Amino acid sequence: MTHRLPELWQDSPVAFWLVIACLGYYLWMAARLAVIDIRSHLLPNRIVLPSYWAAVPLTVAAVVAAGGADVGAALRVLGGGAVLWLVYFVLRVVYPAGMGFGDVKLAGVLGLYLGFLSWEHLFWGTAAAFLLGGLYGLGLIVTRRGTAKSAIPFGPFMLAGTAIALVLPA
Asked: How many domains are contained in the chain?
């Protein structure tokens, strides 16, 4: 997303400021949720649920940046949120011990951010989250600080994977 900022400034200052506001909120939200999840293995609704509304300007920015008539851009943002929520929901249903419902709710928010850029960013942000979480789990096992059954807070890895994808070029 950050690589698109100069072109957004050129094409549509309104879209630029909407994206800047959303990125600022993302940084605040990610920092709060990561600390809370690491400490308590919880992603509180009081932060996650309002984040859906805070990400809505991304939809508006996508449409404005596309010239005001690109319904596909808005659908990609909203679809990204829906698709990622559904993927995590299925994971939760298939293996409830491996995924909390807070992760499912957070996935929808992160999908909005990633969907703003592209479907590829949605894929890479999700893949990065699982890669980072897997490496952390492997590190716990190798250092004997945990086992394959150890619970790890996945929210910070979801947030980090999304942040990595937000800085990737298109």
From this structure: 1
